[in-house]
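If your schedule permits, I should be very grateful for your opinion on a structural question. I have a record of one protein: its chain in single-letter code and its fold written as C-alpha cells. Kindly check, if you would, that the fold set down in the C-alpha cells agrees with what the sequence suggests. I remain grateful for any guidance, and I place the record below:

***
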Amino acid sequence: MSYSTAPSLRTVTLDDVRGAQKMLSGVARTTAMESSRHLSRQVGAPVHLKCENLQRTGSFKLRGAYVRIAGLLPEERAAGVVAASAGNHAQGVALASSLLGVRSTVFMPKGAPLPKISATREYGAEVRLHGQVVDESLAAATEYARETGAVFIHPFDHPDVIAGQGTVGLEILEQCPEVRTIVVGVGGGGLAAGIAVAVKALRPDVRIVGVQAAGAAAYPPSLAAGRPVSVRHPATMADGIKVGRPGDVPFGIVRELVDEVCTVGEDELSAALLLCLERAKLVVEPAGASPVAALLSRPGAFEGPVVAVLSGGNVDPVLMERVLRHGMAAQGRYLAVRLRLTDRPGALASLLGALSVADANVLDVSHVRTDPRLGLTEAEVELHLETKGPAHCAEVEHALREAGYTVID
C-alpha cells in the first residue's frame, strides 16, 4: 500500500498535541492500560499494554481523523471529505465526519472484508467500492477530490493527523509515568511520529521503538537513505502497517525522534496475536500485535517498564481463523500431517484411535480414496491436529510410524 505525500511539511509540536487532546475530549476514549504478567516474565521487565484496540471504531485512527476534519475551514467542510482505505482509516474518517456534521465519501477495494465495509457505512460514510487493491481506491479518491472539491483526508501524512495520534503518547505518560520504553507499530509513521513528539518533549529519556512487518518495511531503507523510499510489492498479513512508502511529514519526525525501527516476521505476528487473545483476553489485529511480536522476538532487549501500543482490533473473522492456526503452528501446537493407509473397513477408525492414544486433538480430516497416485488398496488421509507443543508433535509422528502408518508429509 502506498500513498501520495502531503503538500505541507510543517512540523508538529507538543502544543499541537496538547491542543489535539483538548479537541478530542469527549470524543476519543482514554483507552485502558493493562499490565501483562505473562509478557513481563518473557521480557524480564514490567510490560503494559496500551489498548487502542478498545478505542471507538476499534483503532487509534479516530484521533487523527477527527483533529484533521475539525480543523477544516467552513467552506472546506461544506465541500465534504474523501478518503481511501480498506479498514481502520475508513472507519475513523466516517465516524469523525458524522460527529462533526461533515459529508464523507470513502473508497474501499472491492475485496475489503464485509464487516469493515458495513461498519464504515454504519458510521455514516458513503462507501464506494473501486479496484482490487487500496492503491486503486486511492486513485479514485484523489480523482473524486479533484472533481468535487472534497478535501482528501490522508491517513498519516499531515501535521493535524500526527498531532491527533500523538495524544496516545500523552495518555501513556499519564497512565505509566515510570515508562522507560514505548514500542509501537509503524506503517506510514503517523502514530509513531505523534507519540514521539509528545513523549520526547516531556521525557527525552524514554526510548521509542518502531516495529514494521518484514515484508513491508519501508522505514529501514528510508532511514539509511535519509529520505522516504518505496518498497515494491509490500506483503504482510498486517494490513494496518502494510505501507509501501513513509509519509514525508512523519518520516522527518521518526528520523529525528524515534530511537530504533525493527522488523518482525509473519510467524512472530501470528504468535503475538495468539498470545494477546489467550493470555491478555484482547482481540488484536496483526498490525496491533506487532509491538508484542517485537517483545517476544527480542526478550531482554527492552528496558522496563515497557508500554506496547496495541493500535487496533479490527480483524476479519476469516483472517483471524487463519492467523490463529498459523500462530499455533509457529508455537508447535498445530500439526498438519498427510499419510497413507490400507483402504479397508475400519481403517480410518483405527487411525483415529491411534491418535487418541497419542493424546492429539483432531481438528479436521480429509479422506481421499480415489486418486491416480494411489494404489487399488490405498487411501490417503490429511489430518489437522492440535498438539501441546513441539515435543508432542514429534511424539505424535513417532506414534503414527510405530503403528505402521506411512507418513508422507
The chain is about 45% helix and 20% strand. The first strand starts at residue 33 and ends at 35. The first helix runs from residue 14 to 24. The chain has three domains: 14-60+159-327, 61-152, 332-407.
